[in-house]
Amino acid sequence: MPDLPTHLWLSITRFGGAGLTLPLAIAIALWLALGYTWRLAAAWLGLLGVAVGVVALTKIAFLGWGVGVREVDFTGVSGHAMLSTAVYPVALFLMLLPTRRPVRLAGVVIGLAAGLAVGLSRVVLDAHSPSEAVAGCVVGALAAVVFVWWSWDAKPGQLHAVPVALSLLMLTVALHDVRVPTQRWITHIALHLSGHERPFIRARWKAGRDNPRPAAIEQNTRPIAQPPSDT
Question: Which regions span the lipid bilayer (predicted)?
């Protein structure tokens, strides 16, 4: 692992946060719709939506029912790794789409490298296991590569690269530290769907000791509270 200070790893990991990457994804879709076709914009949002769905479903499955793979410490696809590996290659591809093919390809590679750096930061900061970060990078890269392959020869109308690049760069700078409580939302959904009062926890799950009961059972079996003692 690169020996970087913790604050640098934190700065890197924030590039994968939903508060930054989702607005960037929407901006990409708007530029695609304005400068190319609505079909490209819809394809981009559709691919990203599938990738987001994979992340959400794997996390809900673990938090609500303990579905995971203990052997590789997998409890859900990393959202940071997926979003960064999906969004940054496509953002750079869009900026460089009017340029020559080697330049476009270099932009996609740089974007993938940025996503890998975010995935690595999640492991270094103990936010995810290696298997979860790798899964996130793979899912995100698949979404990005499929979109790039499909739109490789797209012809822009009056769209220029400069406003696209400036707008995406400004968004990146402005939203770098914006945080969205996506994990809290996913946890609420998982508990609602599973009927449990508490989510599965990685450490207890790995030890085979975490077995939440449905809310109704928890309420019926909870011991009656005793009045506080005067002593």
Answer: 12-34, 40-65, 77-97, 103-121, 133-152
Please list, in sequence order, all residues whose beta carbon lies within 8 angstroms of the beta carbon of residue 95, skipping any fewer than 6 positions away: 107, 161, 164, 165, 168
pTM value surpassing 0.90: no
Q: How far is CA 75 from the centre of its chain?
A: 14
Q: Is 50 exceeded by the pLDDT of residue 227?
A: no
The whole-angstrom distance between residue 63's C-alpha and the CA centroid of its chain comes to: 17
Q: What is the CA radius of gyration of the chain?
A: 21
Residue 157: what pLDDT? 66
The residues that bridge with 214 in the sheet, in sequence order, are 196
Give the separation between CA 152 and CA 170, rounded to whole angstroms.
25
Please name the amino acid found at residue 111.
G
Gap between the Cα atoms of 111 and 91, Å rounded? 8
Phi, psi at 69, each rounded to 5° = -125, 100
CA distances from 93 to 103, 107, 159, 170, 183 (A): 9, 6, 14, 17, 29
Burial 169-207 (b: 16+ CB within 10 A, else e): eebbeebeeeeeebeeebbeebbeebebeebbbbeebee
- pLDDT band at 2; cut points 50, 70, 90: low
